[in-house]
Amino acid sequence: MLVLGIETSTPQTSVTIGSEQGIIGSCEISRGATHGEFLMPAIEFLLHQSDIGYRNLSAVAVGLGPGLFTGMRIGVATAKTLAQALSIPIVGIASLDLLAYEIRNSPRLLCPVVDAKRSEVAFAFYRQVPGGIARVGKYTIGTPRNLVAEIQGSGEDVLAVGSGALLYRRDLSEAGKVEFGSISNAFPRATPLVELAMNRLLQEDYDRLFELNPLYMRRSDAEINWEKRSAG
Fold first, then answer.
1. Of 11, 47, 113, 141, which is most buried with the most CB atoms under 10 A?
2. Contact present, 10 and 122 (Cβ < 8 Å)
3. pLDDT of residue 231
4. Domain 103-185 is classified in which CATH homologous superfamily?
């Protein structure tokens, strides 16, 4: 089974092709080219270099966010277009899950944090379980102070990772008992996406193509500005 993974919910665009035997290839970039400029050329490069054709793909996996509105839309739209054109299954996975999965070997309470702009962060809590991770509670968006209160309320040692954790490290440090991940864990990547999707695909746990949407946690700036202009 060959799975194409697409993750574009943050400033980093990440594309991976993998199978049950391992990762075949991966491309990532976090500055310069936009998601739209980099995504399809990266997919075609990976396919060409690994001698794989589009028709050899068995499924598409995509990161759903939360994250940047434009990036999420481009990633999900591209994944859905490929899945429909190739008549193959699609699986969507929250991008915070990807960050948590990469640090699953830590015994601490896991807290992936993504910079959501407007001085806010998107986050969730997870625990290590046999074979992976289990989310504790819901996906949340709020200020760094909101997250500090959540961490303090847990009363546990926390491992915080992601762009939001690095950006607001000083604020989150006030919670105490917080360890921070490295820059290698700053953004969700398509490699763990392929691995997590593979588990679902092997169980034939697919998403419905036309019901799959980005994980929006608030309205976009364009929607807010339009509402303000209409009210005015």
1. 113
2. no
3. 53
4. ATPase, nucleotide binding domain (3.30.420.40)
